[in-house]
Specification:
There is one protein chain. This protein has ten helices and twelve strands. The protein has 319 residues and is α/β, with parallel strands linked by helices. The chain is elongated.
């Protein structure tokens, strides 16, 4: 029996994949998977580390001696608002694979709007040979909101594709070759933006942030004609009724959404049927279980060697 207490795992996605990878993860200490009914009433008093994604509400009462909390994804809003949250480090999941997948999705969506993919799809279904003369990427300014690890990688990949790219964050970030804006310069940033890419964390300030007032400040009359909104950050940062009305009335020329206020998106939600709107089911950058568990193992090893943890969340800021 290992003298090291097992890692507590309470992850509400891909239960089969999690259970499979847990068979070989944390070999030096083992794990307790709360998705397994056999662990429903297990004593968690000796647990020191917890890997969580949308955990049970009573988790911190059941596991009162935690030393570190690891998020099962890049976001931590699903943990920070919980009752009884202990004052211990919370570590975000940062992984090359997750970052790359997110940038792939962002670049794909920007290119689909640039090249009129929705119109092409419509013409194909109607068996119409209808050519679309698209602008070049260099004629379009993509404004990326949120310049953390995901945002900076997306900026770099969009620049490779030839887009003019600018960036916004609450406090200014210095990125070589990219014009950046801070909170006080939001309107200036929006006025320059043809395609707005949302990669912001969910905080009280960003809840309901992408609304009709914001959409009306985006650049009009650019190479795309009407601005486009792309969001892969957090669903509760957007006001979906405003997206619907903005697309219908032409304030927005289209949108790409991977996150939603309520998930899964209801089958009768008007977003499904909007013209030039692409919907993906929150799978732009899914946490890959092998990489996630390796990340936690590495951080626990650092912690137990007395080295500082990486990717620790500022709970006051919310990310």
């Amino acid at each position: 029996m290992s003298a090291r207490p097992p890692v507590l795992v309470d992850i509400k996605f891909n239960p089969e994949g999690v259970a499979r990878v847990l068979k070989t993860a944390f070999a030096d200490r083992g794990s307790i998977n709360l998705a397994d009914p056999a662990n429903r009433d297990r004593d968690l008093g000796d647990v020191e580390y917890a890997l969580l994604w949308k955990p049970d509400a009573d988790l911190f009462q059941r596991a009162p001696n935690l030393k570190v909390i690891f998020s099962g994804g890049a976001g931590v809003d699903h943990i920070i608002g919980m009752g009884g949250l202990p004052e211990i480090p919370i570590v975000r999941f940062v992984d090359r694979s997750l970052t790359t997948r997110m940038s792939e999705w962002v670049v794909m969506q920007c290119l689909m709007h640039l090249r009129g993919q929705y119109a092409h799809d419509t013409h194909q279904r109607g068996r119409e040979w209808a050519k679309f003369i698209a602008p070049e990427a260099a004629e379009v300014t993509v404004g990326v909101m949120g310049l953390g690890i995901l945002g900076q990688d997306a900026v770099a990949k969009l620049k490779v594709m030839g887009f003019n790219v600018i960036g916004w964050s609450r406090t200014r970030k210095e990125i070589g070759g990219v014009e950046t804006f801070d909170a006080s310069e939001l309107d200036s940033f929006l006025a320059r933006t043809d395609i707005l890419v949302g990669l912001l964390p969910l905080t009280p300030e960003t809840t309901g942030f992408y609304d009709i007032g914001l959409f009306k400040k985006l650049r009009r009359g650019g190479a795309l004609g009407q601005p486009v909104f792309i969001n892969a950050g957090r669903g509760r940062s957007q006001v979906e009724t405003d997206i619907v009305s903005a697309v219908r009335e032409g304030t927005l020329g289209g949108a790409s959404l991977d996150v939603f206020e309520v998930e899964p998106l209801a089958s009768d939600n008007p977003l499904w049927d909007l013209e030039n709107v692409f919907i993906t089911p929150h799978d732009a950058a899914v946490s890959e279980e092998n990489a996630l568990f390796r990340h936690v193992e590495k951080q626990i090893a650092r912690f137990e060697r007395g080295e500082p943890l990486q990717f620790v969340v500022d709970c006051a800021a919310g990310y």
